[in-house]
Amino acid sequence: MRANGGAHVSKLNLKGIKMATVNLYRTKLKAASRFMAVQDIRFYLNGLLIESNDVQTRIVATDGHTLFAGYDDAKGDNAGTFTGIMPADTVKAILSWKAPHKSANDMPVVLTTCDDPAGEHRAEWCGNVCIFRLIEGKFPDYMRVVPATIDAGISFFQPEYLLRCTKAAQDLNTSAKGFFAFKCAQDGTGIAVFSPQSFAVIMPIKTDVADVADVAWARAPLPAPAADDQAAA
User: Fold this and answer.
1) Which CATH number among 2.40.50.140, 3.40.50.970, 3.40.50.1820, 3.10.150.10 corresponds to the domain 2-133?
2) Could you tell me the CA-to-CA distances from 14 to 10, 91, 216 in Å, in that order?
3) Where are the domains positioned within the chain?
4) CA distances from residue 175 to 60, 162, 165, 167, 181 in whole angstroms, order as listed
5) What local confidence, expressed as pLDDT, does residue 9 receive?
6) Best label site of 41, 46, 151, 182, fewest CB within 10 Å?
7) What's this model's pTM, rounded to 2 decimal places?
8) What is the chain's Cα-based Rg?
9) Mean pLDDT by 10 residues, the chain (233 residues)
């Protein structure tokens, strides 16, 4: 990866014939980055999956325990079709770029890509440029992980995973306090919904607890004392 804080960089070594232009938004990149694997032996998880065409761009990240998925509709600025895994260090480089002004955060990061898996790709935002190569490998089929229906159920989750969701909601500006909707699927999988365009899937943890204790006791007054206790009083 080669990064440059200015507008001038060396030209891409584009070996492919077909080109694509992809527009990404840093708010979603930041939220998704919280769900990437870190130095996982499954190297293809150490980055973000990007899928894009003229209609929509999706980004997906997972560490095998949690998964983030988000999309943005194209505004006439996408061109061509692209699928690839952006390395984690490239994502971090993009997120490290300083906005020259407040409104810059609403401007997309523009990717110029080629159809050669081993070729170089370019990310540009507000005069900042990064040239990188994709992670070679097959990203998991995220669509198989997303539940078809969401029903009420009982599940147990690592608090750390839920904290990721709180921070992702703040990244996406859907809630300054990190609020998000949460429901469980029939298989126990948790779904944290940040907006109509982004959500996270949380894998439940295994536990020996078969059920959750009834809390109806708190809706009633203290139990009446036994007859012997009343007589003694």
Assistant:
1) 3.10.150.10
2) 12, 21, 66
3) 2-133, 151-217
4) 21, 15, 11, 10, 11
5) 37
6) 41
7) 0.77
8) 23
9) 45 56 92 91 92 90 91 87 92 92 86 81 92 91 80 75 90 78 83 90 76 63 59 55
